[in-house]
Design brief:
single chain; 353 residues; mainly alpha; Glycosyltransferase; three-stranded antiparallel sheet; 8 strands; 43% helix; 8% strand; globular; 6hp_glycosidase-like_sf; Glyco_hydro_8
């Protein structure tokens, strides 16, 4: 089985790129992104910073941090997407929405900064004080990427939650107000990064009560999904329903048409049991556990997280799934390779630092 160090070196050689004294993660080597000249995104920068601090590579971490600081938007968050402007021989934000934020990237960047503060404190020479960068970023995430009525993550700072009084019956949704009305009450489970929010709760002490409410809201939503789907599978996007619960979005939202806290253990157990019952893990399932018809192949971005869930819950078939993950050939995909490496690092260092 290849060592984590070898996997890391392969990943670093394939995806880490330099621009001046900055580094970025090349997430579009194959030109598969809709914006053909896109080179990176905030998600990729967040993955890169997490991987770098977990591998104790401070030089790479600081290079990626410089990228974040260079492309920080007016709200203090990471601009979502950068492109290669060959006409002007420079890199800049994508023209359509590139300066908006995407919540998951900011959560990962802030989490990595708190990890770095614990591991290193400051950059060599003291140029960067990681904690002093992380705390304002946490404030920006709270101010611009969390719905202050539901305490759930929004899709990014481009989603404007209505500023209106909350009735005695509580927040009933704001989908009828605002230009981004169709997204106001939508949340994305890939942003349910409880390890990140727990880090914020412990480190961003000024907002600890708010982060506790965010974690409670996410856990309650995940518990509700388990009642809807005993497989433990969760839809790509959820929307606030009239009953006050977040439920699977019926219509396409963004990407596609298939869209140790004891409270979370039943969901992890259900997911572990589901994946452990499969002869192989394919690249997409309906919430009832049926494989999506054309997803007859395996993909690292599905197999690796399933492996970690089974490892965490000590499922008896975890070794078989972990071996499947190790034997799965890399498709040279930034996403799958990054997810696999992060999962391997998670299982090696569960506390993160």
């Amino acid at each position: 089985m290849p060592s984590i160090d070898r996997k890391y070196q392969e990943w670093r050689a394939a995806y880490v790129r330099a621009w001046g004294d900055m580094l970025y993660i090349d997430y579009n080597k194959k030109g598969e992104v809709e914006q053909k000249n896109a080179i990176t995104c905030s998600e990729a920068i967040g993955y890169g910073m997490l991987i770098s601090v977990l591998m104790r590579n401070q030089q790479d971490f600081d290079g990626l941090l410089r990228w974040f600081l260079h492309f920080k938007n007016a709200n203090g968050l990471c601009s979502w997407q950068q492109i290669d402007d060959k006409n002007h021989r420079t890199y800049l934000n994508a023209p359509e929405g590139g300066s908006n934020s995407a919540t998951d990237g900011d959560i990962d960047i802030a989490t990595s900064l708190f990890y770095a503060a614990r591991v290193w404190g400051r950059s060599p020479g003291g140029h960067f004080d990681y904690r002093q960068i992380a705390v304002p970023l946490c404030k920006a995430i709270w101010d611009h990427e969390i719905n202050h009525y539901t305490f759930m993550p929004t899709l990014g700072d481009w989603v404007k939650v209505p500023e209106r009084p909350v009735s005695a019956m509580g927040y009933s949704g704001g989908a009828e107000w605002g230009q981004e009305a169709s997204y106001t009450d939508v949340t994305r489970p890939s942003d349910f990064i409880l390890s990140g929010f727990l880090t914020f709760y412990n480190e961003d002490t000024e907002r600890s009560p708010q982060w506790a409410k965010v974690m409670d809201a996410i856990i309650a939503t995940v518990q509700h999904q388990l009642r809807l789907n005993p497989t433990g599978l969760i839809a790509d996007f959820l929307k606030l329903a009239a009953n006050g619960y977040f439920e699977p979005a019926i219509k396409k939202i963004l990407e596609s048409d298939n869209d140790k806290d004891p409270r979370i253990q039943p969901t992890l157990m259900a997911q572990s049991a589901f994946f452990g019952s499969l002869s192989e893990i394919n690249a997409g399932y309906h919430l009832n556990g049926q494989r999506i018809r054309d997803r007859t192949y395996s993909d690292m971005s599905f197999t690796a997280p399933a492996s970690v869930v089974m490892w965490a819950m000590r499922h008896p078939n975890q070794v078989r799934i972990q071996n499947e993950m190790q034997e799965l050939e890399s498709d040279k995909s930034y996403f799958g390779d990054s997810i696999q490496l992060l999962c391997l690092l998670q299982s090696r260092d569960p506390r993160g630092f």
